Amino acid sequence: MYAVYATGRNPRFNQFKNRASFIKKEVKSEDKQEQWGSKSEYILSLIGFAVGIGNIWRFPYLCQKHGGGAFLFAYVVMVLIEGLPLFCLELHIGNHFKKSVSGSMRHIKKGLVGVGWCTITVCFLCSVYYNSIIMWIIRYLFESFVNPLPWAECNTDHICCQEDKTQYYWYYEHLRLSGSILELGSFNPTLVVCLIIAWVTIFVCISRGIKSSGKVVYFSATAPYVVLIILLFRGATLEGAKDGIIYFLQPEAKKLLDLNLWSDAASQIFYSLGIGFGAIVSFASFTKNCDNVIRDSIIITVVNCSTSVLGGFVIFSIVGYRKHITGADFNQLGSGPGLAFVAIAEAVANMHISPLWAVLFYSMLLLLGVDSLFGLMESMLHQLREEIPFLRRIKKHGVNACVCFFMFLLALPTATNGGQYMINLMDTWAVAIPLLVVALGELVAVVWFYGIHRFTREVREKTGFQIGWYWQICWVVLSPLVLLVLMGFSLVSYFSDMGYSQFVGCAGMSSGKAYPNGSMIDVKLDNTTNSYNLTGNMTDLDFTYKEWTVWTELPTAGVIAALFLLVTPLLTLPLGALFGYLFPTSHEDSRKQAPSSNLESCPETEELATADGL
Questions:
Q1: What is the DSSP secondary-structure string of 419-468?
Q2: Hey, what long-range contacts does 260-265 have (CB within 8 A, 24 or more apart)?
Q3: Integer Cα distance of 280 and 181 in angstroms
Q4: pLDDT reading at 529 higher than 60
Q5: Which residue pairs, CB below 8 angstroms and at least 24 apart, start in 346-352?
Q6: Which helix or strand (DSSP H or E) is residue 530 part of?
Q7: Burial class (CB in 10 A: 0-12, 13-18, 19+), 60
Q8: Rounded to whole angstroms, what are the CA distances from 213 to 118, 379, 381, 611?
């Protein structure tokens, strides 16, 4: 009997051997870790993810809101005590454990797997609405090839168009925005086409994971800087640019006493660097074992902050020109879409060869947005493959295609008349607080469960960098404290005034009186009464021409949706912990062998300056 089995003549033995061989090959393929094609791919991918749309359209707004130089000072302080330490922490987690957030947390303690699932949920929700913002950018980019620009002239006698062509185009032509968050209305065909283009572009770029996106970043992460420099030189030559830059840099020292300034500075650097999304951890897991995380974190942080400042110079030089031409005050700069699609669009429309500058500006925003979305999608997909073994048996591009198509279907309502309301709701409630919880969970995992001394020793062994008191105080005290305070500020601001910006047209608050289409109405503007032929029904009496949107209390359905968006990611924390205990993955055995044993394969690290004095 033994001889028969030993020689392999028994067919049942051969069947067993073939199955064992198949399983061995499958496990071997699963255990084979993807790696970046080169160090430059890794660094460019990190830069592309960290430097996003927010560096261009949110950072300048916060500078304008909080007194220019005063905000810059608070911003640098928060970089040192929050941004840099947390970025370095995530880089080392990924590089050391060679896994995503969920896999790394599973190695430290099974109950912490919920942190990874919270990250997956946040990346999923954020990707859905983030690509809808890219949808807007694609629409404006296509329209930029028309001369004259569509928002530069009025082709209607609508009173709102006569008052402000740029805002009229944004609200009435581009968004076709409804008057309430409860009114989704119909689909906008042009936006639906742009949404399809956006998701097809993302799928093509991430279809093979970092093998494909790693090549794309050579262009997508570098081209925006070329455009920024071109726009900087162009902006510096515009009339009024000097006034805009002075306003950008001029500090208001008294603003430093405002707690909202420090809160905004902390939140800006936190979201700008992409901390908590899991992309930093996933990207670092694809690097060589002995990667210098200290050096890389300093490089990425400096590049990210420098880009924000460079973007501030570009934006304020153009906004200074806008004030020179139209008289619009700097306080009317606006944030986010209001800056990119109204303020800058209006300034660009008044430049010579305006289509050229519009194409450059919106192509830059497109590349910045696509790069950031690479990171969000890779983080989510990487963790799903680790936590759900079944997905590892399916070809990567097949899984990615199904996920992209499903997310496209979920994003379709953002292409309706009420789409902007949905995007704003998701941006406000689905991301901010859960990200803070994720970052705090990572700190707790490292400091309390893994051990801060063990962590710092591993960083020193891999990098040759002596971890001084600066890093340890930040990881143990300052960074958690900033996260807790920021979380408290966010909760108070959210629940103290649960509202949304309701579109009311160019006429301000509605008084309830209906004006049918074609009515002649008298409008008092700057003490001068003018008669207008009303195109489109309107229910307004007090025409102030000051606010196109008003802050309105969320209806019951909106409150329910907001709480659902907030609670859903947070619920994945306990549910994910339960999942970690009940369903161990094929990587579970790796917990028995500490990754630090791989340090034996590290070459001798070069001597670096000791950080004990920091």
A1: HHHHHHHHHHHSSHHHHHHHHHHHHHIIIIIIIHHHHHHHHHHHH-----
A2: 260/66, 261/66, 261/67, 261/70, 261/71, 261/74, 262/74, 262/78, 263/485, 263/486, 263/489, 264/62, 264/65, 264/66, 264/71, 265/62, 265/66, 265/71, 265/74, 265/75, 265/77, 265/78
A3: 35
A4: no
A5: 346/151, 346/165, 346/166, 346/322, 347/318, 347/319, 347/321, 347/322, 348/149, 348/318, 349/148, 349/149, 349/151, 349/152, 349/165, 349/166, 350/152, 350/321, 350/322, 350/325, 350/326, 351/234, 351/238, 351/321
A6: strand 528-533
A7: buried
A8: 24, 13, 13, 35
Residue 519, pLDDT above cutoff 80: no
Q: How far apart are CA 510 and CA 517, in angstroms?
A: 16
Q: CA–CA distance from 39 to each of 45, 223, 287, 465 (Å)?
A: 10, 19, 8, 20
Preceding amide of 224 cis, omega within 30 = no
- Other Cβ atoms less than 10 A from the Cβ of 293: the count is 25
Which among 292, 209, 340 has a CA at the least distance from the CA of 43? 292
Segment 328-374, tens digit of pLDDT: 777 767 678 888 898 899 899 988 899 999 999 999 999 999 999 99
Based on C-alpha coordinates, what's the Rg of the chain?
27
CA angle 172, 174, 175 (to 5 degrees): 75
In this prediction, residue 364 carries a pLDDT of: 94
Pick the more confident residue, 604 or 443. 443
- What is the maximum alpha-carbon separation in the chain? 108
* CA 245/CA 240 separation, integer angstroms: 9
What are residue 187's phi and psi, to 5 degrees?
A: -75, 145
Q: Is the pLDDT of residue 5 over 80?
A: no
> How confident is the model at residue 17, as a pLDDT?
45
Query: From CA 178, how far away is CA 505, in angstroms rounded?
Result: 10
Structure tokens at 341: 């699609």
Name the helix (H) or strand (E) containing 306.
Answer: helix 293-326
Burial class (CB in 10 A: 0-12, 13-18, 19+), 358: buried
Element spanning 501, H or E = strand 499-503
Amino acid identity for residue 26 in this structure: E
Confidence class for position 159, pLDDT limits 50, 70, 90: confident
Q: Are 333 and 61 in contact (CB under 8 A)?
A: yes
Q: Half-sphere exposure of 581 toward its Cβ, with a 13 Å CA cutoff?
A: 7
Alpha-carbon distance 509 to 548, whole Å?
9
Please count the other Cβ atoms lying within 10 Å of the Cβ belonging to residue 217. 25
- Classify strands 549-553 and 499-503 as parallel, antiparallel or unpaired: antiparallel
pLDDT at 12 over 70: no
Q: Which of 512, 509, 511, 508 is nearest to 546 (CA)?
A: 508
Cβ-based neighbours of 205, under 8 Å, separated by 6 or more: 212, 213, 216, 370, 374
For residue 501, report the phi and psi dihedrals to the nearest 5 degrees.
-85, 110
For the chain, percent of residues with pLDDT exceeding 70: 82
Strand partners, 501: 551
Positive or negative torsion for Cα 537, 543, 549, 553: negative
In Å, how far are 43, 97, 104, 396, 550 from 37, measured between CA atoms?
Answer: 11, 20, 23, 18, 50
Q: Is the pLDDT of residue 152 over 50?
A: yes
Tokens 């999608």 identify what position?
Answer: 377
Compute the Cα dihedral for 526, 528, 534, 535 and give only its sign.
Answer: negative
User: Which two three-digit tokens encode residue 179?
Assistant: 């008057």
